[in-house]
Design goal:
The chain is of the alpha+beta class. The chain has five helices and eleven strands, in the order αααααβββββββββββ. The longest helix is centred in the first third of the chain and has 21 residues.
Length: about 260
Amino acid sequence: MPFNQVLLPVWTAVGSAPPESKKNIGYLPDEHPPADWWNWQMNLTYRALKDLQDNAADKTPVTTTTNGLMSKEDKIKLNGVSTGANNYVHPSTHPATMIIQDMNNRMLTDVQIQYLSEKADTTTATTAKNGLMSKEDKKYLEDLKSTPWINLTLQNGVKSYQSNRTPQYKKIGNIVYLRGAVTNVLANGTIMATLPIGYRPLDMTHNYAQNGSNISGRSTNTRISVTTVGEIIMDGASELSQYEDGKWFPINTSFPVD
């Protein structure tokens, strides 16, 4: 705290400073220093105390009723208060009429709120739950519509069975699809067609079974394979009479290529 003005010892005689050698060793026993040296020390002490009296602040923390030192936290808080600010008490409710609407700020009616609450879940749909369509599913559907079917080039005398059963293939993503039906397949092991590179199984032959022409009221079936070199082969039939001219064989299937 600052010196009390009543107790401050006033000493205005300036005097002169002792030499550095005397400052280093100090006064010796029974030594009587010159008056100028003594005045210099007393005046220096007086001026130091006077500076403290004039400029030092009380270290007692400030309160709401007493002046004192401000804490750094209060100073930070004070610096954050805008000029001219006062103690604002926010009301607990507001009338709707006080809200000003514009192009970017609108209130919703009960009807609009109900409409928004009935929107679809933003999670992706699954086979068991409604939801948003994934970009992968959307691309797949678009590819289904836009990817054209390509006619197979038949081999070894094999023919297309009817004009609306033309043997064809297409690829969507990494899945190859075959459709159509053939006739004039006359023996086991007949290579009916060959798929181009990019439409062939990569690691192993794709084998599958299909129904064929009914014979004497009995249903028949065939075993077909698609090899890694693209050959579509008639591996065998449940009855040899299926290989008679005019009998037909569907080739419908699908398989991954990578």
